[in-house]
Amino acid sequence: MSRFEPWSEERTVEIVADHKGLEGPLMPILHALQEAFGHVPEEATPVLARELNLSRAEVHGVITFYHDFRHQLPGKHILKLCRAEACQSMGCEKLVERAESRLGVECGNTTPDGRVTFEAVYCLGLCATAPSAMIDGRIVGRVDANRLDQLLKEAQS
Ligand code: FES
Fold first, then answer.
1. Is the pLDDT of residue 154 over 80?
2. Where in the chain are the domains?
3. Is the pLDDT of residue 41 over 80?
4. How high is the pLDDT of residue 156?
5. Distance 88 CA to ligand 1 centre (A)
6. Of 70, 73, 91, 101, which has the fewest beta carbons less than 10 angstroms from its beta carbon?
7. 45 Cβ partners below 8 Å, 6+ apart?
């Protein structure tokens, strides 16, 4: 069974109501939707526009601008590699290439068997032990080829 709730307009409206009082509520709402549904489906756009009094284009623009938001349900495991500056300087791009070749998908995609979604992330706040990764919400520092292989094994299990 999926760890995420199926998308529903009713639940989306509820999530919007919980965050509406915040200043600049769209980003926190989008994060909350992704947490609940695993992604921000297209059907959410008109609901958010209506509830927040924004145009659909504005909502769509924000959803597509940020790498954080998924448009489809993720796989069973989510592996993220940090591609921000500190991790770049510690060779994260080599790790990205390695993960892409082992998984057979480009960063930002899910393996065809639905097991692993491989994504980039831009700083996990663990720059001191770069390069960093995250697997199913757990942060891992000092990732090298061996550690990456372990993470891939874990993700493919
Ligand atoms: S840049 Fe990768 S953890 Fe900060």
1. yes
2. 9-65, 77-156
3. yes
4. 87
5. 8
6. 101
7. 56, 59, 60, 63
pLDDT digits (tens, 9 = 90+) for 81-140: 999 999 999 999 999 999 999 999 999 999 999 999 999 999 999 999 999 999 999 999
List pocket residues of ligand 1, CB cut-off 6 Å.
82, 84-87, 123-124, 126-127, 130, 132
**What CATH number matches the domain at 77-156, 3.40.630.30, 2.60.40.10, 3.40.50.720, 3.40.30.10?**
3.40.30.10
State the distance from the centre of ligand 1 to the C-alpha of 83, rounded, in angstroms: 7
Q: How far is CA 54 from its chain centroid?
A: 24
Q: Residues with Cβ < 8 Å from 118, sequence gap 6 or more?
A: 79, 80, 81, 99, 100, 103, 105, 107, 108, 109, 110, 111
How much is the average pLDDT of 28-57?
96
Mutational test site, ligand 1, from 67, 80, 81, 82, max ligand atoms within 8 Å of CB: 82
Which pTM value belongs to this model? 0.84
